[in-house]
Structures are given as C-alpha cells and as structure tokens.
Amino acid sequence: MRFMITCRIPVEKGNQLARAGTLGSTIQSIVEEMKPEVAYFADMEGGRGGYIVVNMDDASQIPAMAEPLFLGLGASIQIHPVMTPEDLGKASPAIEQAAKKYG
Asked: Is the whole-model pTM more than 0.85?
C-alpha cells in the first residue's frame, strides 16, 4: 500500500545540521534507507519539510520509516494512505455505491 509521509524539520535542528555541514547527507541517507517512490523537499509553513511516498505491506514497517526522520532530523511527521489515479479508478464502484446509499 502506498503512503505519503509529510515531515517538518524544526528550524533550529535544520540550522544545526546545516551549520555542521550534515543536513544534505542526513536527508540523503534517510531517503536511501526508505527507498521511496518519490521524495520532494520544500519550504513548509516557514520551515524545511518534505513529501515522501513509500510502499508498505504492513503497519509494522511504519517505525522503520518514521524513526530515522524523528531521530536524524527531529522531524514531526504525518502518514496518510494515498492513491494513484488507477487506484482511484478501482475504487469507483465503492464510491458510487456510497453515493447511492448516503448521497
């Protein structure tokens, strides 16, 4: 199942890593371990952040994805299941059924 992890790196922790010259290498190491489908990093609410899409087969894999972000970057995270357009297409019958029943 595909999940999007949104992470926010606290400004002070990011600055500390940047001053030490390790911000980029820390992020790169974490991303390499996660093996994401895609990862984007951008400003987020006035600070540093990232959007990382990963595949997980089981909820027990969440700590392996989250802990490096917590420990290495001091990040706060959110994890949400996400769908591709193809996944959404497969879900259409359930959406239509719910619309008929509850719409």
From this structure: yes
